[in-house]
Amino acid sequence: MGIFSLKNALVACAVVAASALFARDVWTCEQANEWFAKQKYRAGVNYVPSYAINSIEFWQKESYNPKIIDSELALLESLGMNTVRVFLNDLVWKDDPEGFYKRLDNFLEIADKHGAGVMFVFFTNGGKDNGKLGKQDSPNGTHNSNWRKTPSYSVLGDKSKWGYLEEYVKGVVSRYANDKRVLVWDIYNEPGHIKSPHVKGGGANLSEEDVQRLRKMSLDFLEATAQWARSCNPSQPITYGTFVPDSTPHGKMFNNLIYSQSDVISYHSYGNIIRQISRLKEARKHNRPVMCTEWMARPTGSCFNPVLKFLKQNNVWSYSFGLVAGKIETWRPSFDLSCPELDSIWYHDIFKADHTPYEPTEVEYIKSVLKD
Known about the structure:
This protein is of the alpha/beta class. Helices cover 43% and strands 12% of the residues.
C-alpha cells in the first residue's frame, strides 16, 4: 500500500471511529420542528447545469464548469428562489475524493453567493444502469436520455460491494455536517423505483423476479444509508422522499420505513393541485416539517400557478424540477402522452438555453409569489 493510499485508509478509519462515538438518532418531532422554525422559507429547483446530461458530467473534473453554474444560479436568484437540490455521484467521488470535495466546496461558494442553500442527494434508482466515468453520451432527443442510476444494479444487489458507498456517505456528510450552506441531506431518491419508466432503457428488460429482488435490497440499502449518515451526527436534517401515496403497493412496501428514517418529511408530486393537496395531507400526519422535493410538470397540471403559491402558503419547502434547458432535455415529454397539444408544452425547466423565459408570465408569477 502506497503512502497516499495508507493516508486515505487512516483518515477513513478515523472518520468511522469518530462517527461511532457521536452518532445521533432520528430527530424527534420536537427537534425537527424546532430546527424548521429557525429557517427562512425555501423555494428553488432540482438543478442540473445545462452542460451536464447526468450527475457524472455535472461533477467530474473534465466537465465541471463553475462559470456556467454561476450564470445559471444568478437566474435562480433573479426569480426570488433561494435553494437548489442537486444529485451527487459516487463514481466521481471514488475516482478522486479530494478533487470531488474541491468541486463541492466551489459549488457551495457559488450557491451561497446567490443566496441559495443546498440539498444534496446521494443515490437514486432513476435512470439507466452502469454509469461510467469519462465522456458521456450525447442527447438523443428524448427526456432525460442519459441519466444514470447510483448505485448500479450490480452494486445495489450485492451487499459485499457497499463498502465504498459507506465511505462516500460518511466522507461527504462528516465534511459538511456543520456547514450552514448545506440545508438538508436527501440520502436516497425514490428508493425502489427500479424500472424508471420515464427514462428509455431504464430497466425495462429486467424480469419481475429481478425487480422484486432489487426492491427488497433497496429496503436494506435505505436502512444502511440512514445509519451511515446519522453516524456523522449532522446538524442538518436527513430525509427520504416518498413518490407514491401510502396506499399504493410500493407505498405500503417503502413509505413507513421512509418516514421512520426521516428527520423531516419529503415527497414528490407531479400531479395537479388536487394531487398536491392529497399528498400534503398524507405528509402532515407525521407532525414534522414537510418539503416537496420534486414537482412541476406542465402537461400533467403540475404548474407554478397555483402550486407554488399553495406550497408557500402551507410553509412547504418547494423544489420544482429544472432551471435552464440543457443536455438533460427535460423540457421534452417524459411519457408518450399521445396528444400533440400536450407534447408541445415544455415538461420541465423555466429558462431557454439563451436564458430567456420559456413563458414570461410564468416567471412573473414566480417572482410575485416569492417577493416577500
